[in-house]
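JOB MANIFEST
job_type = single_chain_structure
chain_count = 1
residues = 249
[input]
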Amino acid sequence: MVLLLATLSTHADPRPWSFVYDLYPEGKGNVEFEQWATWEHHTNNVSGFNKVDFREEIEIGITENFDLSFYAPSWSYESSHDRKGTRFESAGVEAILYLSKPTDWVGVGLYAEVNVGESGKSYEIEIKALFQKDIGKWSFAYNLVFETEVDRENGDSNVEGVFGHCLGVSYKLDKNWRLGGELRAEFFYQDWSRYTGSEVYAGPAISYTGNGISGTKANWWITVSPMIQLTNQNDSPDLMLRVLMGIEF
């Protein structure tokens, strides 16, 4: 695997945002490793709540307009009154089909993701329509999200539907730095029939693209997005901080 990664060509595919998906394909034959870390802090119901989710992703450019990603078993560390320690979360696969480019009239893409939890007792299916427009140094993006989460316990299934919107704007300061912001709004439905609440988060997005790793053909980038809850959901984090780091081979 290491030899395969070392021989693949370099391709720049930095992420301008952490929560909003862009329409920059990986490129045929290119491979990227992404490390995710998302910190959630404090809820009104559980003072002092802290949780960090970790996810590792391998993204492969199957064709010039189709990427396939594999998520290694993700895990989290939580420190709260209810739990302290680590636990397995899920593993999954993701696919993105790029129908047009952000430099066209409008970039359009289709996204699908499936994650399975421990022992198959829970799973998530997420579908997104991706839109992006690049104008000069500016990038504007919108994601329309449909997600279904199923938890099975003692023979019963609990189904939650999520209908969401993600907005992102980014400005390229120079060849390395991007500065922008993003907003995520989610609406929750029990069994996709009964509305149960909503969450809205917003914050800045800062992205840096490195100049390559010495002695290799690999490039790297990092994106940081702190998000503050704008709604008043007591059982949701007041602050989320996501850090993404990618190495492209």
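[summary]
Residues 118 and 152 are 11 Å apart (CA to CA).
DSSP finds one helix and twelve strands in the chain.
exit_status = 0
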